[in-house]
Design brief:
4 helices; 61% helix; 3% strand; single chain; two-stranded antiparallel ribbon; mainly alpha
Length: 146
């Protein structure tokens, strides 16, 4: 395996070193301009105004205290946490709807059983009990008229 040429004065520099040199030079040129720009929008409480926009960069990126502290970093899992919370609330709502439907079905089933038990009752001679039959017919008529 061949050795790579040494880097140094008069030698070709690597891609990373060239990029670092260019970005450092760029920062040296831009930093005073940015500081002057921010000084124009500094408010009395030590923060920069939120309405500031420059070349598509919103001021929330530029907002920082005068004492040099950076603003709190955005939570990298914020979106995922939000989606998880939405899913949790949807699932809870679905579970509540299923539970309500189950309770309604159980209630209807209990009413049907009660009604069937009354209609199936018989006298000693095997005849249906008229009281239960009349009550059932009356309920039917009342339901039809409503």
């Amino acid at each position: 395996m061949a050795k790579s040429p040494r880097r140094g004065p008069g030698r070709p520099e690597g891609k990373k070193a060239a990029l670092k040199r260019r970005t450092t030079k760029l920062y040296r040129e831009v930093r005073p301009l940015l500081q002057a720009f921010l000084a124009c929008y500094r408010t009395a409480d030590g923060k920069y105004e939120r309405e500031v926009k420059r070349s598509g960069i919103e001021s929330r990126r530029l907002t920082q205290h005068v004492d040099g502290k950076k603003p709190a970093r955005r939570d990298p899992l914020g979106k995922a946490k939000g989606k998880a919370e939405e899913l949790r609330t949807e699932r809870a709502a679905d579970e509540k709807a299923r539970q309500d439907a189950r309770q309604r079905r159980e209630k209807q089933e209990a009413q049907r059983r009660r009604k069937a038990r009354g209609l199936l009752k018989r006298s000693k001679k095997g005849q249906p009990i008229m009281k239960n039959m009349a009550k059932h017919l009356l309920e039917k008529v009342q339901k039809m008229t409503q």
